[in-house]
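Retro notes, item 3 of 5
We never archived the inputs for the tryptophanyl-5'AMP complex last cycle. Fixing that now. Sequence and ligand:
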Amino acid sequence: MTRVLSGIQPTGDVHLGNYLGALRQWALDQHEHDSFYCAVDLHAITVQQNPEELRAKTLETMATLVAVGLDPEVCTLFVQSHVPYHTELSWLLECTVSFGELRRMTQFKDKSTKQGDGSQEHVSAGLFTYPALMAADILIYDADRVPVGDDQRQHLELTRDVADRFNSRYGETFVLPSAAIPQIAARVMDLQEPTNKMSKSAESALGAVGIFEDVESIAKKFKRAVTDSSNEVRFDFESKPGVSNLLSILGAATDRDPELLAEQYTQYGALKADAADAVISVLEPVQLRRSELLADPAELDRIIARGAQKACEVASVTVRRAKEAMGFLSPS
Ligand code: TYM
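Structure as it came back at the time:
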């Protein structure tokens, strides 16, 4: 059976990009694979976090994973820091990846220049070595498949390169993983600035749609979405980014092809209204499930504890294998 691993940072509010690009795919194919999904709290601290908020967000993220339809009886749901082997393997991989490879990561360049005075002087070293920890997250579960949005493509390529290098230096140790990127909505764009990806740190609050936002607010954001002045509905991200983004969102939410959908519309208003309705109808059951779960914290604790145990069982074996291959003395 194919092994799957993916993760989401427990920071900010989970938005429609996270949902359509990643979480929804995870829920859709959980029955076909042996899947591991986690809240990557160790990644969250690459930028400074408030401790109380981190704790609360981690719990909320775990509730979100269940709310989007991941069944803890079917897949393993866990908190990354509950499996200490991730950081142990990360160090071995930091010593395998090169400084040059890390320096070329576009996500590091983007995030580090947005912080402080843009000089990179005060960004954490963890932000720089982040891709080694991400590679460890994946390789430690022998994952073949990693369902992510398009923005994680470069990290996945690096993970493969690192695994390949490790295998050729020390013998076959890691499975080479592939990114599973959805055909539609792999990069959901900001509703106000459709040439930027929708993100938790959007400039305008109207640009990102939180998956737990109330339905009136979601409808309002779609109504105000930026399009263009030509009033021609066509799927073409180059010349019509706003309209194409709405078509992708509608297509992903209704499982239809955005290009064919474009033929059905002559007015932006109708497209916006249908996109909002489609999004609301996929999110409503998710919202309901999450409020039920947050009302039963004991159940969530049980899910998290069981996930940690299952994840540790698999991860400990891989780390032992990697350490032996590298020449560490086994404890007697
Ligand atoms: P994160 O927390 O930023 O995002 C979680 C998932 O959501 C996807 N995503 C999007 N998809 C489509 N459109 C968007 N606008 C959009 N924004 C985010 C992301 O691609 C991701 O799949 N580094 C990762 C977390 C991570 C991870 C891993 C992922 C850590 N270890 C191991 C996979 C495997 C991140 O920051 O995702």
